[in-house]
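Glutaredoxin-dependent arsenate reductase
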Amino acid sequence: MIKVFHNPRCSKSRAALQYLEDKNQKFEIYKYLDEKISENQIKDILAKTGLKPIDLVRTNEDIWKENYKGKDLTDEQIISAIVENPKLLERPIVINGDRAVVARPTEKIDEILD
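Predicted structure tokens:
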């Protein structure tokens, strides 16, 4: 089943849910800000997207600018920053089996649909 890492306050995240509904796709919602996100979940997303940890970071967030921007961070440190501050996670992330995308633009979801 498709899993969406969702932030209800994000218009792009809501658009991803609507896109999946419009395509008659069943999915489950993971509200990562409420339920938290683990290091293993992030590593799983990285493996399925082929992205680097920095690619999953919302670098315009104040938390990033105030605490991490301009520092020479390892991948592990970036992952830890996301775990400690889930708001930093780029969204929405849509996972389907062994594939995943950051759904920006929303049409990127098509890359992982069967």
